[in-house]
Design brief:
Blueprint: H1 12-21, H2 31-43, H3 54-61, E1 75-79, H4 89-102, H5 106-116, H6 141-146, H7 151-155, H8 159-170, H9 180-188, E2 200-203, H10 207-211, E3 222-224, H11 225-241, E4 245-249, H12 254-273
Length: 274
Amino acid sequence: MPATIQQGAKGADVKQWQGILGVTQDGDFGPATDAATRKWQSQRGITPDGVVGPATWSLALGTAVGQPSAPKPGAASLAKVRGIEKLPAGDLRALIAAANYIQIDPDWLATAISFETGGTFSPSVKNKAGSGATGLIQFMPSTARSLGTTTDALAKMSFKAQLEYVKKYFEPMKGKLHSLDDVYLYIFSPKGIGRASDFVMYSSPEAAYTQNIGFDRDGKGYITKGDVTMSIESLLNQALALGDRLIVPAAISVGTLIVAGALIAFAIAEARKA
């Protein structure tokens, strides 16, 4: 996790934090960055003291304060975001592989899929507001066409098969998404990446506002970047607060099965001799 910073600090950690805030990235934690920090913290229920320590970094980066216990040898782990326990081990491994391909934290991809599918992790789930969006990251019909497929075809795919299109969608941003917010905004609306939390994404009477009106909890008549990112951050933080991760066992190779079978057969033969 980056170092604790506050007004007067300088350097790469400050520049990274400024990128999250959407302010000028000059690496100098001055009054403007301090004010933006306090506002960001206040909007997310953190004490607005202007100090970017473990709690603030954790919420911003979608990572736990401190380190989770190490997974078992030969296994990976994922935050227990809503619905993820429904996936078989093979699909969980495919999700981790897709995140590694995109060069993002697997927890971020798992959280985005959980949020977009309402915790179902279903490749056929459709947007209830009637936008036509379908699947793991709610591909819009136009997006599906740009990827060489259709939403109808996507809805008939398996989880693993549709992940290939998730990877294809994220291809232009491989290695360029540095937080959970970035990952989700690239799905929801890339125009929000790098913007301040009060940046207005959509407003009434835009169709996009109506389709996403749930983000406007205060009935303001518009949706800000902060409205959107607060929801996705809350989902992951709830999972991280459990302090218990889902262990994903490594795949068993054919060679391992053959050896195991031979050992069992040998043991049975020896037992018969006795």
